[in-house]
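From the pipeline queue, job 12 of 40. The input is one protein chain; the requested action is below.

Action: predict structure.
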Amino acid sequence: MPKMLTIEDLEKRKENKEIEEEFGEEIEDLFDLVMPPGTPSYIIYDIVEEFGLQPVERQMTVNVVESDKREVIVLRGKLDVVKEAEEYYFKEMKAFVE
């Protein structure tokens, strides 16, 4: 059974202040790209490395069989970078499915 990907695998946790210092702007100016449960870990790693997005955990409702709250991985960054990463994500997922 493959190891479940956790946020610690991507990067150690950071405080909001450290994130703001790294991006040089307030946290409110950043956007999240939600990685759906079941996304292959290599795609998440590739997006983090290629686009420099900040991996963080977020709790949200996931509707799989029944609706429940789960910790999901989101990749945080500036809007234009998040949009590019989203396009890359869909391209990679299409290749994965085919």
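Job complete. The radius of gyration is 14 Å.
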